[in-house]
Amino acid sequence: MTNSDTSTRILKKSSRTVWPIYLFLTIFVIIGGGCLLYAPVKAVKTLVFIRKAAVTTGTVEDLVAKRGSKSTTYAPSVTFNTPDGRLIRFVSQISGSQSAYNVGQRLEVYYDPANEGNAEIKGFIPLWMPVIIFSVLGLAFSGIGGGMIYAIRRSVKEAEQKEALLQNGMLEWETEPDWQSATIRSVTGREATFFWLFAAVWNVIAQPTGFICLNSAIYEGNRLASIGLMFPLVGFWLLWEAARRTLQIRIFGEIQLRMDPFPASIGGEAGGTIDLPIHFSSGNVFAVSLSCEQVIRHRDGNRKELIWQEGGRAAATLGPAGTRIAFRVAVPATEAPSSDSHLWTVRITAELPGLDLDRSFVIPVIREQSPRTSRLNVPLAHDLMPSEELPAGTVQVKGQGERLLLRYPCRRNLKTGLLCAFFSGWFLGGVSIFVFNSPGVGFVILPIFGMIGVGLLLYAVWLLSNSLQVTVEAGRLSVMRRLFGIPINSSSIETALVRRVEIVKFGARGTGTSAKLIYRIGADCADGTTITLGDGVEGRAVAVEIARQLRQVCGLSGPTAPTR
């Protein structure tokens, strides 16, 4: 089946199935629009009420139960006396699982002198929470519905344009709008826009939610509500990321990558130059990485998995705009070319005065009979990385002659360990608070969350406390694993029995373009056993260098075995 036949089939299928989605999302937009229209009306009514209201002191007479389908909330019933001595009673429109008010409590009350029954407790939550709720619901429903309609419509339009170009004989990669020339724009601008929109929608929902949870935790004694404070914290992080990306654009401008060759090819090279509007300094170090991500599609969404990555340094020289950087990276012959299921991304980073540089470019990588190489007169990025420069946080190397000592400290897994410990505390804390407040409830769900929390805690302890020492001397290879500094496992073998040393992809740390592949280094021995000579190693270049030194002292010739 040709590309044209496939696109036509997908397009016809989309046209038959997209209109029910439009209808469903339109309902979201209508509901959201109605809430947004009513929210300012309610706000004006509240302002008018406050302006003409009189203030008096009332007493909480009772807590009125409001039973829902799954829970019961309580609203304070308040009484107060008018100037002419009449007793007025009203029930506040705000209720909670545990009321913030006590029977007999004295508090200030707003009431309308022309209609004493129109009254409310004087406070931010009783007066303004309905406005906040309608605003949040309106923004959430209309934003989600409208945004998804726009995204679907845009994807359908792009599919139509791509289909027309394919029918005219263009190759699939040539139909991408961003790949019409060798000049590739950075995705940072689009990422900044996405973060601002996502942060706006998230914070509109999360900040009022956090305020309600904080009020419930402090004034109502509901400790379980403190878990909800996670949502505004995530909102603050989203705002920080959006501001950081926007500041990158303002300082460095619209940075573009001029590819050489264009496009890159499987089994060949990816390379190019970038002009930066910064003062040239020989002390600035620019790191470059080429990554391949596989897009795994599910019914509930897509997931990207980092499957290959190569890193090194770019060469920096004086350029017309200030500094010009150039790089070349070898593309493996075993990976797949650019497609809807495989994305190739170049990332350039540098620690610069004022603000660090961090830009990513999605580039085309195709498969050809004769792989293309770059015409740039610069070494490969991997070759520009000093071989002796290994991060001390990952491995500490001491070697002399035929003796080599490798120490992998506990902190090599610091970020992952702290993240696991954080989520473990979140799970276990939530379970503890829930059990404390509602004993005897959730016999099925709570043990599951508790086991997840315990599992994450044990894994965090392992990551943060295990270290590994590898020693090669006098013809023997010795390995010692320690936990909290206490030896728990050791092995030793003659170096003559080591058949090969290889690096194996173990996973990835981080997300998106900032993700780093994690490797394990192992030795295959003549007796059929495999010995771990390193784990938690971040970055292929570091893993390859460690394996090279191990192969050298073990007397093994030839290149490092390919990664599995």
TrEMBL record:
Q: Which residues cross the membrane?
A: 21-41, 127-152, 194-218, 224-240, 416-436, 442-464
Quote the protein name from its UniProt record: DUF3592 domain-containing protein
- Tell me which domain of life the UniProt entry assigns to the organism this sequence originates from: Bacteria
Using the record's annotation, list all stretches that form the DUF3592 domain.
56-124
UniProt keyword list: Membrane, Transmembrane, Transmembrane helix
Its ancestry begins with: Bacteria, Pseudomonadati, Thermodesulfobacteriota, Desulfuromonadia, Geobacterales
Extract the InterPro entries matched here.
Answer: DUF3592 (IPR021994)
Tell me which Pfam families the record gives: DUF3592 (PF12158)
